[in-house]
Amino acid sequence: MAMLATLQDAEVLPPEGTPEANRIIQMVIQFQAVFMKSSDPALRDFFDQALLAQWAEKAKPLGAAFRTRGWTSEVLEALSGQYGKLSARERARLARAFAAFNMRLADFEILSELFRKARTTYSQRGQDIHRIFAEHRRTMPGGKPSDGKERQNGNQGLYSHQS
After folding, report:
1. Spatial distance between the Cα atoms of 120 and 4, rounded to a whole number of angstroms
2. Which of 25, 79, 140, 152 sits 20 to 30 Å CA-CA off 110?
3. CB-based contacts of 18, cutoff 8 Å, min separation 6
4. Is 0.90 topped by the overall pTM?
């Protein structure tokens, strides 16, 4: 998955094959399913409000793209940011929605923190997490071909082995 590859390249994941790494893989997959499949009103409201608060006019297309293709860095960034603004009551409603998928608030907090750490790491490298994610998405099976907005080989300096 492009999200895991993005986090891995930022060196924020635990060593591969460890129970911690396996749990994070499960979290990425499960939370994608939670946000794609749940019809819980609290969850839908949280998702929609997060995208609207972060991306305004891009919220609807980002939401539609997520529901058909899965995680994007923009969606996870919006959800992570919105989560920090929730009241205890709103978090309790979200916890009930997560529980239907055997997930916990603490799991989402871990995923959000990993994303924040990765974004900071890329920023310190002079890179943009959204461009990194887009490059990973393009290289994955079923990934979108280049739309001409980025260099054919991705972001300048994206990987040290690219020329």
Report:
1. 16
2. 140
3. none
4. no
pLDDT of residue 144: 57
How much helix, strand and coil, in percent to the nearest 5, is found in the chain? 65, 0, 35
- Give residue for tokens 């409603």: 93
CA 135, CA 130: separation in Å to the nearest integer? 9
State the Cα–Cα distance between residues 83 and 87, nearest whole angstrom.
9
Quick one: DSSP state of residue 155?
Answer: S
Helix ranges (DSSP H) in 38-162: 41-55, 59-69, 73-83, 88-99, 105-124, 129-139
How far apart, in whole angstroms, are the C-alpha atoms of residue 51 and residue 55? 6
pLDDT at 149: 40
Query: Which residues of the chain fall short of a pLDDT of 50?
Result: 145-163
Kindly compute the dihedral angle of the four CA atoms of residues 25, 46, 116, 119, in this order, to the nearest 10 degrees.
Answer: 90
